[in-house]
Amino acid sequence: MTPLHRNSFRMKRVALRRRARHISVVLVVLVCATVGIWTWDTAPSSAFLPPQSRFLKLQTEEEVRRIPSGLNTETKGSYSSATPFVNKAETKEDSTIEQVEHEVVSEPKHGKTPTSRENKLQQVKREVAIRKDQTTKTTHIKETHSDPERTKQFVAKKDDVSTSTARFPNQACNYAKGKWVVDNHRPLYSGSHCKQWLASMWACRLMQRTDFAFERLRWQPKDCSMEEFEGSKFLTRMKNRTLAFVGDSLGRQQFQSMMCMITGGKERPDVLDVGPEFGFITPEGGGRPNGWAYRFPETNTTVLYHWSSTLCDIQPLNISDPLTEHAMHLDRPPAFLRQYLHKINVLVMNTGHHWNRGKLNGNRWVMHVNGVPNADKKLAALGNAKNFTIHSTVSWVSSQLPRHPGLKAFYRSLSPRHFVGGEWNTGGSCNNTTPMSIGKEVLQEESSDYSAGHAVKGTGVKLLDITALSHIRDEGHISRFSLSASKGVQDCLHWCLPGVPDTWNEMLFAMI
Ligand SMILES: *[C@@H]1O[C@H](CO)[C@@H](O)[C@H](O)[C@H]1NC(C)=O
Ligand SMILES: *[C@@H]1O[C@H](CO)[C@@H](O)[C@H](O)[C@H]1NC(C)=O
Ligand SMILES: *[C@@H]1O[C@H](CO)[C@@H](O)[C@H](O)[C@H]1NC(C)=O
Ligand SMILES: *[C@@H]1O[C@H](CO)[C@@H](O)[C@H](O)[C@H]1NC(C)=O
Ligand SMILES: *[C@@H]1O[C@H](CO)[C@@H](O)[C@H](O)[C@H]1NC(C)=O
């Protein structure tokens, strides 16, 4: 063999080997894909879910909660002196209440409007992403409730998206899809300085925590740019308007986050407490009012929060009995909404973690439907009751929209919990402090909160879909650093502020 021959022989061998390697790579990919799709079909809810994803399971009933009666009811009594700001005393009292709650708790600016061709392209990209998702064990969150029915909807929804894009250019962007990136311009306020609005129980800068990498993350939506939040821009946009958060303690976190974001965490002695205008008064005997409302005088912008843990109407059955049972009207929106909706321009509702038997029993709440005690056993199951109420309240709000042309209504999807190895009261923990260790990207089209996604479908209420993006932020909870929790009890439900709820508000800002 001449050297030339030898050389070409070697080259052929190399080429052959390459081809063989190529074929085996293709084979491996194919096998993976098949197995992936197969697993997905047979066990869609668990195939590639990190174990923590069970948070989407309906609330268990063993969680016990006791909250002072009266806290959750519409407060009666006379307005004496509104606490102008979140002062020390209020915060302290709060933490006691929240400790209870905690123990329970185990409680556009668009880049551009895509043309229809770009939409097709996006759709193809989406499908590729989905397929990639199924074949590789990447960190993308899966819908926990996938089933064949669901898949059909999923496809149908994609078509919806392209048609609705043409009609509502501002809704083209799905802000829920995207990734977390490190950004040195975060956080938007200081957790040690925003004392006026931020309760110390949520300010992780005031705790023993030493790792603050979680504060530096920014959410970057995939198919659009998200307008940078600026307090002054927010206030200008909200001139003469009112933003209302109505929901549980996670809603309250979003409210405090918003107040800190607007003010940049700076003292604002000029901001007015207008709680009494919305019926927020400190009950006699000094409990917690059932909400807070503040007004920025320069733009006449009001930001408020109303406590409604289950987003339905709660009525005492016997007003003169302090230990009375309460009718929990699953099919009626909170009285606050019926009374004040005309004063609200942007409404953000949420519920979720309070739907457990312990809390209902502790509060003496009795489910009612059509004004009478519920006799439907199926509906009495907490997951069904919760789903029913979310649907009822969302559709009631939607029905009110024509009467309130200035109103934009949002339902905020479930904020995920991250208890590992137990519940809040059985040693559950969330010890990780390293951001993005369980993932950094969300590519799914539909919300991980199936109930919320289903409830807003076909209504005028928009979904503020924060579930999947918050799910990959397991390091952002208060965890073992809680000031008020008893030893060994971790808070893997509430978030450190500044933190994840700031992102919910950035999305909200981009959507209004
Ligand atoms: C705000 O409301 C006041 C009183 O109704 C009105 O005079 C003013 O023009 C309004 N400002 C804007 C920007 O709409
Ligand atoms: C503030 O805004 C409200 C509407 O939200 C309006 O009724 C009221 O007149 C405004 N007040 C002033 C002083 O502009
Ligand atoms: C309501 O409660 C009061 C005080 O406990 C009691 O005297 C009264 O009989 C109750 N009324 C009804 C209708 O049960
Ligand atoms: C939730 O409630 C709606 C409306 O009542 C119903 O159509 C839907 O099937 C329910 N979903 C679940 C998961 O129960
Ligand atoms: C989290 O840390 C606590 C102690 O701080 C420990 O008891 C617990 O086992 C840890 N949890 C996990 C899942 O590692």
Automatic annotation (TrEMBL):
InterPro entries assigned: TBL_C, TBL_N
Q: What is its main location?
A: membrane
Answer yes or no on keyword Transmembrane helix: yes
Biased composition (Basic and acidic residues) is annotated at 89-122
Q: Which residues form the Trichome birefringence-like N-terminal domain?
A: 172-225
| Region listing for Disordered, in residue ranges | 66-122
Task: Establish whether keyword Transmembrane helix is in the entry.
Answer: yes
Q: State the PANTHER family in the record.
A: N-ACETYLNEURAMINATE 9-O-ACETYLTRANSFERASE, PROTEIN TRICHOME BIREFRINGENCE-LIKE 14
Q: What is this protein called?
A: Protein trichome birefringence-like 16 isoform X3
